[in-house]
Amino acid sequence: MQKLPFKLLPAFACIAIFLPVTSLAAEAPRLRVLVLDSKDLYFKADRQRTLILKGIFLGKRNIKSLKVKVDRGQIKYSLNGDLSKWFDLDRNKQIRIRTRDPRGIWLGKRRYGGELRLLNKGNSIWVINYLNIEKYLKSVVGSEMPKDWPLEALKAQAVASRTYALNQSQKKKKKEFDVNSSVSSQVYLGIEAETNSTHKAVDSTRSLVLVHKGSLIDAVFHTCSGGITEASIAVWGKHKPYLVSTPDYYPNISSCKWEKKFEQKQLQDIFSKIGGFNAIRITKQTQTGRIASAKIYGSKGIEKLSGKELRSRLNLKSTLAKFEILSSYNNNEKINFFLDSFSLPSIEETSQSNNLNYGLTNDLVSQISLPPLPNKKSLVVRGYGSGHAVGMSQWGAKDMAEKGMGFKKILRYFYKGVKITSF
What we know:
The chain has 423 residues and is α+β, with helices and mostly antiparallel strands. It has 3 domains: 32-131, Tumour Suppressor Smad4, CATH 2.60.200; 133-220 and 391-423, no CATH class; 254-384, no CATH class. The chain has 11 helices and 23 strands. Strands 3-7-10-11-1-12 form a 6-stranded mixed beta sheet. Strands 6-5-4-2-8-9 form a 6-stranded antiparallel beta sheet, with no helix packed on it. Helix 3 crosses helix 4 (196-203), helix 3 (151-171) runs antiparallel to helix 10 and helix 3 packs across helix 11. The longest helix is centred in the middle third of the chain and has 21 residues, at 151-171. The model is unreliable at 1-26 and 333-370 (pLDDT under 50).
């Protein structure tokens, strides 16, 4: 057994004290991850070893599979593929599933380590994965970054993700889970996302986190900034001194360029409350040129949206974008009477002038009624970047690592004034 370095006691009692490395694993925090919300679930053992279940009566049976469903608010389950026999779960009981098999537990098409707990939410079942944070990170790093990226970039991701998860855990101590498994927290795809490189990245940065003035930071990150990262205050309205705008290290922003097209029917559905889409006007931009707020003009009214809301409504990759009305047949034909965000000045600029382009006053712009979007015309949105653009740019981290920079330098570049220490 490998031993940790020992500490010598006074000479009169010179005894070497050894602690097994495995004892460290018990000290690492456990995380609660929401991995699925469904009405119908199927769990199975990977190969020879069986599932270990708590919360239900098993008798002396070895359990290879478990099927669970919600029926009128009641959880029912069947064992070992016998769908002719369904049992009701006592409302005061909770099913807990684990295995001694290192290959984990199959849930649908993914495998998970640790323990899975099932929560009855009335119309559906939540599956919460309880596991050691270091085990969790070996999947997260592989879920968030390609496994063949430079090791130093993967290490930077490991430290950022560890910090983010622990920070979220501190905020949600009284709720059912700490993080979920989607992009709204950070992506976690189970054991399938683990590789030798992600194991190495996590193990070599074990317990390291980012702190600012003694507290864990909100270590958010994104795919690509499109050239410059954004300050937290511009996106979420709260200034955090370590989340400020900085030039992205990634030089080839053309690879982060994107385009999305909307036809008239799509826009009618998206903006149905105001009678569809006639025009858009960007009323405020951030210092990096991203959309901070906008007005959408429809045949029945005007809707004001923040940049974040507009991005969500149109499902855009980022808010670093411009809008054009184009012909479905000729992409070079623009409609001149639309209030294009790049042909009208911002609200700040209009406050210094009595008139806007097209001879419209600021008051008139808020009341204007434009004709519906003509047939065979479409809205085209073109932009750069992917994500909210706050914190670490993953493509930037990759480029820095390829230039020979270590993970600590990468992290300190994107998170200003932080310290890297053990939790």
